[in-house]
């Protein structure tokens, strides 16, 4: 029962990883594809995602391999897994925490304001391309166009008037990507913690069973005498 429950938890984690990958993470990151001034942010998000998902996959595979080794070797090999699991948790925490903070960049939002000012002053076509890509209008809605240009360009209609500004769209996208990355980060640490608890519980169970068997043998030996 102990092993079956553990295997079910690992398989559920793997299934959730695949679901998050193809249904949530990739669509959100690809939404930023093609936006020139967000190339660094997009590269950082993809790099973090590939690293953390690869780590989760490796954790699951190593757990399955170590699970198999318990049947092929001595049960006490699990004793070596405990310090390894503790070190893996510490390494994951330190390595990915700094990368996670990079996904909350404020510089990109400041650069967006500069792009807007440049568009108002020089009629730069980049802002129009950004609106078509993100399906947004103005810096913070159509009222910004009315305030600066006294008109709303055709890029704000698709086919009806778009009321959400590009700042809000990007802010929501950044928050969503950061939330997904944070959940993957917590998932990796949780899996490593689960494996640590699993092997501690396994050794405790094996030790307790051995002690109990010895006591039963002593008790039976006294009865025979």
TrEMBL record:
<protein>
    <recommendedName>
        <fullName>Tetraspanin</fullName>
    </recommendedName>
</protein>
<keyword id="KW-0812">Transmembrane</keyword>
<dbReference type="Pfam" id="PF00335">
    <property type="entry name" value="Tetraspanin"/>
</dbReference>
<keyword id="KW-0472">Membrane</keyword>
<feature type="transmembrane region" description="Helical">
    <location>
        <begin position="77"/>
        <end position="98"/>
    </location>
</feature>
<dbReference type="GO" id="GO:0016020">
    <property type="term" value="C:membrane"/>
</dbReference>
<feature type="transmembrane region" description="Helical">
    <location>
        <begin position="180"/>
        <end position="204"/>
    </location>
</feature>
<dbReference type="InterPro" id="IPR018499">
    <property type="entry name" value="Tetraspanin/Peripherin"/>
</dbReference>
<keyword id="KW-1133">Transmembrane helix</keyword>
<dbReference type="InterPro" id="IPR008952">
    <property type="entry name" value="Tetraspanin_EC2_sf"/>
</dbReference>
<feature type="transmembrane region" description="Helical">
    <location>
        <begin position="48"/>
        <end position="70"/>
    </location>
</feature>
């Amino acid at each position: 029962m102990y092993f079956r429950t553990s295997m079910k938890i690992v398989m559920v984690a793997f299934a959730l990883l695949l679901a998050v990958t193809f249904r949530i993470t990739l669509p959100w990151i690809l939404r930023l594809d093609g936006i020139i001034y967000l190339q660094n942010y997009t590269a950082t998000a993809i790099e973090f995602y590939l690293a953390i998902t690869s780590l989760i996959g490796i954790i699951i595979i190593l757990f399955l391999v170590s699970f198999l080794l318990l049947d092929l070797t001595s049960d006490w090999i699990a004793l070596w897994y405990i310090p390894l699991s503790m070190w893996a948790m510490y390494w994951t925490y330190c390595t990915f925490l700094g990368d996670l903070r990079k996904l909350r960049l404020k510089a990109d939002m400041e650069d967006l304001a500069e792009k807007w000012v440049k568009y108002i002053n020089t009629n730069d076509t980049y802002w129009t391309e950004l609106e078509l890509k993100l399906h947004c209008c103005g810096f913070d809605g159509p009222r910004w166009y009315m305030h600066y240009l006294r008109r709303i360009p055709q890029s704000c209609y698709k086919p009806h008037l778009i009321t959400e500004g590009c700042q809000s769209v990007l802010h929501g996208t950044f928050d969503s990507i950061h939330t997904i990355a944070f959940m993957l980060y917590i998932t990796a640490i949780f899996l490593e913690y689960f494996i640590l608890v699993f092997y501690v519980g396994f050794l405790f169970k094996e030790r307790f069973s051995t002690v109990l068997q010895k006591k039963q043998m002593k008790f039976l030996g006294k009865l025979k005498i």
